[in-house]
Write a structure and sequence with these properties.
Elements (H helix, E strand, L loop, with lengths): L1 H11 L14 H9 L9 H5 L5 E4 L2 E4 L8 H5 L7 H9 L14 E7 L2 H6 L5 H11 L5 E7 L7 E6 L2 H6 L13 H7 L5 E5 L1 H12 L3 H4 L2 E7 L7 H12 L7 E6 L2 E6 L4 E5 H4 L20 E4 L7 E5 L2 H12 L3 E4 L6 H14 L3
Parallel strand pairs: 4-6, 6-7, 7-11
Antiparallel strand pairs: 1-2, 3-12, 3-13, 4-5, 8-9, 9-10, 11-12
Length: about 375
């Protein structure tokens, strides 16, 4: 049995030495200290990483469906189990952030937007993320991108997608503000044997990805060419925001939602051109429980972080790594995106500082 377990671990990791002699199971680690404690981010990293397929993703959380083999891998990839920011910063950047970096390590901050009019029409804010993915795909930097799409069965419900064409990238554009466990799409990337993949996710998903890297879980992380992190204060439950508030209180069918955005309030745009406003104070009643334990607003461990920050038709970009800088500058030089300097006295800059500080102070 031990030899079989080691062969499985060797397939997933760089070597069987990663199999700890100490048996730690899901129930006494993640279930007890994370899931039952209400801290689970719902990222699905544990589900993806379990080499014995003991877990499934159910109701936004991992569920044990057969006897746990106690390999301890799930707890090593969980962003809410024994998280250490300093260790992860050293893993990604080779150093910790300084006092002059209140929103994490960075190389450059800039405002950016797509040049392509189709992208601008269909995407969020400046369309930066979609533009970078489309550029990387068209220039053979990547074969696919892990993104959040929309369910074909449940209107405006986000689901993980592996986009392999420009049209699929554009179909998945925009933000739904309810949670999509994008890590699950890494399984599809592995199934299709993709060798070059971009990953787009929320701060908790970027943290999980970095823990998978640190654990050298090569099956899923080796193909990742760059990771784009989305700025995120919290996400909301579908049942609360979409069904309870938008459908029942505002009288808007989810099928009629064209776009949603947050600019100090939630703006719901319908296919007929109507706009409805939801005060953030009201929306916060639908915040997912696990989001209350998040300490990262701006995806501080991503290669590139992107967010709206109250801007109109522009995306605030934080380029953090050499890898991120390379793809960003290539897209810029080839005319896929345009940029302008950040006003360091402006509202977006102040908001980034404020929201980052508030997140770091979460207990």
């Amino acid at each position: 049995m031990l030899k079989t377990r080691r062969r499985i671990i060797f397939f997933l990791f760089e070597g069987a030495e990663h199999l700890s002699s100490e048996k730690i199971g899901f129930e006494e680690s993640l279930k007890s200290h994370v899931v039952d404690a209400g801290k689970c981010a719902g990222c699905a990293a544990c589900v993806v990483s379990c080499p014995f397929f003991c877990l499934e993703y159910s109701d936004g959380k991992p569920k044990l469906i057969k006897e746990c083999e106690s390999c301890g891998i799930c707890l090593r990839v969980c962003p809410r189990y024994q998280w250490n920011t300093q260790e992860m910063e050293k893993h990604v950047f080779g150093r910790q952030h300084s006092g002059n970096e209140p929103f994490g390590v960075f190389r450059r901050v800039v405002l950016a937007r797509a040049v392509d009019e189709e992208i601008l029409e269909r995407c969020q804010d400046g369309g930066l993320v979609s533009a970078l993915l489309a550029f990387a795909l068209e220039h053979n930097v990547i074969e696919a991108a892990v993104v959040s799409g929309v369910s074909s069965e449940k209107p405006f419900h986000p689901v993980p997608r592996l986009a392999t064409t420009r049209e699929q990238i554009l179909e998945c554009s925009g933000t739904r503000y309810t949670y999509s466990p994008n890590m699950l799409a890494l399984q599809e990337a592995a199934k299709q044997k993709k060798k070059a993949v971009a990953f787009v996710g929320t701060p908790c998903q970027i943290q999980a990805l970095r823990k998978m890297e640190a654990a050298r879980l090569k099956k899923y992380v080796a193909p990742i060419k760059f990771a784009i992190g989305l700025m995120c204060t919290e996400s909301f439950t579908y049942e609360g925001l979409i069904e309870e508030h938008i459908k029942n209180r505002l009288g808007i069918s989810p099928e009629q939602i064209k776009k949603m955005n947050i600019k100090g309030k939630i703006i719901v745009e319908t296919l007929s051109g109507e706009e409805k406003i939801i005060p953030l104070k009201e929306a916060k009643a639908y915040t997912r429980q696990g989001c209350h334990h998040c300490r990262d607003f701006s995806s501080e461990l991503a290669d590139i972080s992107a967010g709206g920050l109250g801007l109109t038709n522009w995306t605030f970009a934080v380029i953090r790594t050499e890898k991120g800088e390379k793809i960003f500058e290539s897209a810029e030089k080839n005319g896929a995106i345009t940029t302008k300097p950040v006003d360091k006295e402006g509202k977006a800059w102040r908001l980034l500082h404020l929201l980052s500080s508030k997140k770091r102070g979460v207990k």
